Request: fold
Amino acid sequence: MKKTLLIILIMTMSLAVNVQAQHRVKRQVQPDTSQVVRNYIDSLKVLQSRLDSLQQLNSQLQQESTDGRFFRLFVPTTFYHSGANKQLSLHPQKGDEVTDAVDNALMYIYMRRPDLVRNDESRLRRVGSIREDVNTEIMPHVELTNMAQPLPDEPDPVPIQVMVRKPKFWKLTGDGYLQFLQNYVSDNWHKGGESNYSAQAAATLELNYNDRDKVTFENKLEMKLGFQTSPSDTVHRFKTNNDLLRLTSKLGIQAHKQWYYTLQMMTYTQFARGLKANDKKVYSDFTSPIDVNVGIGMEYKVDALNKRLTGTLNFLPFSLNFRYVARESLEAKNGIRGHHHTMEDFASQFTGELKWQIFDQLSWKTRLFAITTYRQSKMEWENQFQLKVTKNLSANLFIYPRFDDGNDPDEDMGYFQLQEWSSIGLSFSW
Reply:
C-alpha cells in the first residue's frame, strides 16, 4: 500500500512540472508586445538621464579645472583654520557650497590622518606664500584684437617691354664763332693811323670714342681763318691775319688711373696764301708747308678744381716728323735742302691742352706745343680768353707767342714771334 501511494505521488509531481514547463514555453513563444515597447522606452529614458549626468559632470569638471577654490586639495596637505573654525565656532560663517565641501574634506583628513599634514596656515603666512585669492573663481581675461583690414585688390600684372639700348661710345661735340672788327680813323686824326676792317671765323669739331673701360680714341679738327683790309696796302685788297687747319688723332690705352699709353698723329697746314702789306711775295700757302707728326708716349688727363680745369698733357719722347712743301720757292725757307719737297726728322715733343672755366661767363683755353729735332726747336703757345656776353654773343682775346730757331732771327725780337688780336661777335656750340 505504501509503495502504491509513493508511485502515485511521484507521477502527480512530474505531471505538474510538465504542465508548468508547457506554460513557460507558450509564454516564450508568444510574448507580450506592449510590455517590450514599454521596457525599451524606459531603457531610453534611463540612458538619457545618464548622458545628462555625464554632461553635467563634464561641465562641472571643466569649471573646476579653472576654479581656485579647489587649490587646497591638490597641494601638500596643510592645516587651514577655516575648517576648524566652522566646526568649533558657535556661530560659524558659512561660505559657498564648494568652499564648505573643501573644508569638510580637509577636516576629515585632519581627524583621521594627522600624519599627512606637512604644514599649517600660520607658517605659510609668516613666509608670505599663502594667497587670499584662492577662494575666488578665476575668470579668464580675453583681449579682443582689431579686425585686420582686408588686403587691397592688386591689379593683374601687365607685361612690361624692357628695351636695352647699346651704350654710345662715340660722342660728337663742337663750337665756333664768327666775329668782326671795324676801325675808322680820319685823315686828320691827331695821332695818325688808318682805318681797317677784319673778320675772324673759327670752328672746332671733336669726335671721341670712350669704351668707359680702357680704350679712348680722340679726333679733333681745328679750323681758323681771318681776313683784314687796310687803305695803306695798295697791292692786296685782302690779307689773312689768322689761318690754321689742324687735325689731331690720339689712341689711348689706360695704364693707371689718369695715365694712358698714347699713339698720336697730328697734321697741320693752312687754307690760303700768307702775304704782307705792299709785298707780292708769298710767305706760305696751302700744303706749303704741311707737317705730319707721329709719336708714342704717355698722356695724363687733367681733371681739377671741381672739373673746372680739364685737358690733357701729352709726352711723346719718340716721334717722327714729316714735312712736305708744295711750292719750290718755299722749300729753303722751311728747312728743305736741295731740290726736294719733303724732309723727315726724328724728334721729341710735348703737347698740353687745357681749358679753365674761370667762372660761368669767362673761360681760358691754352695750348702749348713744343718739338725739337735736336737740330731745330719750335714752341707755340696759343691763349684764347672768351667772355660770353649772352648765349650767342661773346668777346675774344687771342695771344699767340711763338719761338722758332729754324728761321733767320729778327733784329729786334730774335727767334721770338707774337700775334695778338681781339674781337666781338657771334658764338655757338653743340
Observations:
- The longest strand covers residues 239-256.
- The radius of gyration is 63 Å.
